[in-house]
Amino acid sequence: MDISENDIWYFPDDLFNPMPNLTYLNLGKNSLQSIPVQLSDQTKVKMLDVSKNRLTSVSSAIRGWADKMQELHGMTLHLNDNAFECNCDNIGFIRWIQTTKVDLDRRSYKCKLSNGTVIDTLIAYTSLYDLFADCKNIMWLTIALTLLSSFITISLLLVAYSKRWKIIFSIYGVIRRVVEKKVWKRYQYDVYISYGGDIVIWIKNVLIPKLEAEWGLNMCIKERDFLISLG
């Protein structure tokens, strides 16, 4: 199938589904920024031309698929005249060009370094350690930042969970002040407790210190806050 020179930049997911016997596909001279991953479902492709597009790389999925096609029945792949990039993300692609058994139209393509310099992928391959010495540093920095951000997030969540009641009552305090302002009335207490029997000791020794001292709530307690009438 030849659909070259059509300024194609996108393929629907199911485009190739009705073509299980596709063996030849020419996508040259279009505007593709990546080889359609839908092709990885095809099992009989022997020739693929994606030259003169806007490819910056060939994904690992497509590389694996091309290698599989080569093993099954041979595979020819045309990649010339694209916008390949030689950077840390493309090291796998740069190596693949030199090591794959797929029949490529060339074994070296023009590619652009991060600083804008244009070189050949073969030069990039032979100078991997010189050109991309910082890649491992970037990788470890990324891992470190990811771990640090995860640690900070988990720590904040744990703190928020441990202080959840303080947070809830702080929000309650804000809402209360808004309500008091609207109704022109201030409330003296936050909580009223009525109790009796054996629970008195727990109320006095545990609940009251918790609510008043730790959570900062004003409690209304019968024995303490109600004045005894002598009449």
UniProtKB/TrEMBL annotation:
Matches recorded under Gene3D superfamilies? Ribonuclease Inhibitor (3.80.10.10), Toll/interleukin-1 receptor homology (TIR) domain (3.40.50.10140)
GO annotation, biological process: signal transduction
- Keyword Membrane part of the UniProt annotation: yes
SUPFAM superfamilies recorded for this chain? L domain-like, Toll/Interleukin receptor TIR domain
**Cellular location of this protein?**
Membrane
Q: What is its main location?
A: membrane
**What UniProt keywords apply to this chain's record, in alphabetical order?**
Membrane, Signal, Transmembrane, Transmembrane helix
Any idea what this protein is called?
TIR domain-containing protein
Species source reads Mytilus coruscus
Pfam families per the UniProt record, alphabetical: LRR_8
